Amino acid sequence: MAAIFENLLNHHLNNNNHCYGESNNIGFAPDLDVVETSNSFIIETELAGVNKDDIQIEIKDSKLYIQGEKKRSASEASSEITETTKEADNQFKNKKYLSERSYGKFKRYLDLTSVLHLLDLSSIKTQFNDGLLTLTINKKNPELSKSIKILL
């Protein structure tokens, strides 16, 4: 079971076309960690600087989508890397010397097709603390999926 999920993730996470989504307007790709426990799968996504209201999570066509947008602050939006510090009307303009942070829309997905039969999708729990989005998906109870013979 772990090998199936590991192969699935290795294939999709290492292939940019499957990992990032269907749009060319991707601003950045947040990092993902996927951990299997004895009774669940835990997916953690780093979304530092992203507002909780700007995140959408859905399962559609056997894929788990995590998408949203990391917006620039007002001061960031008004700054540009530039040589000039004054505009034509002599108003001071913020001067940015360095910008290493990523902004824009993001869309990641994991194709769950080969492990969907193991997951209890009604059990998904989400948590968003300190820029870390955590999704926990319980595995189906193996006792419930066993065949039970009933005698008359």
Q: What is the distance, rounded to the nearest whole angstrom, between the alpha carbons of the first and last residues?
A: 35 Å
Mean pLDDT: 77
Structural class by helix and strand composition: alpha+beta
The fraction of residues in strands falls at 25-35%
Number of domains: 1
Determine the fraction of residues in helical runs and give it as a percent range.
10-25%
Number of helices: 4
In CATH, the topology is named Immunoglobulin-like
Based on CA atoms alone, the radius of gyration comes out at 21 Å
In N-to-C order, the SSE pattern is HHEEEEHEEEEEH
CATH architecture: Sandwich
Tally the beta strands.
Answer: 9
- Name the overall outline: elongated
pLDDT < 50 runs, ≥5 residues: 11-24
**Largest sheet, described in full?**
4 strands, antiparallel
- Under CATH at level 1, the class stands as Mainly Beta
Strand order of the largest sheet: 1-2-9-8
Task: Describe the protein in words.
16% of the residues lie in helices and 33% in strands. It is α+β, with helices and mostly antiparallel strands. It has one domain (1-72, 99-139): Immunoglobulin-like (Sandwich), CATH 2.60.40.790. The strands form three sheets. The protein has a four-stranded antiparallel β-sheet, with no helix packed on it. The longest helix has 12 residues, at 2-13. The two termini are 35 Å apart. Mean pLDDT is 77; it is low at 11-24.
Q: Which structural traits does this protein have?
A:
152 residues; 3-stranded antiparallel sheet; alpha+beta; Immunoglobulin-like; SHSP domain-containing protein; elongated; A-crystallin/Hsp20_dom; 16% helix; 4 helices; stress response
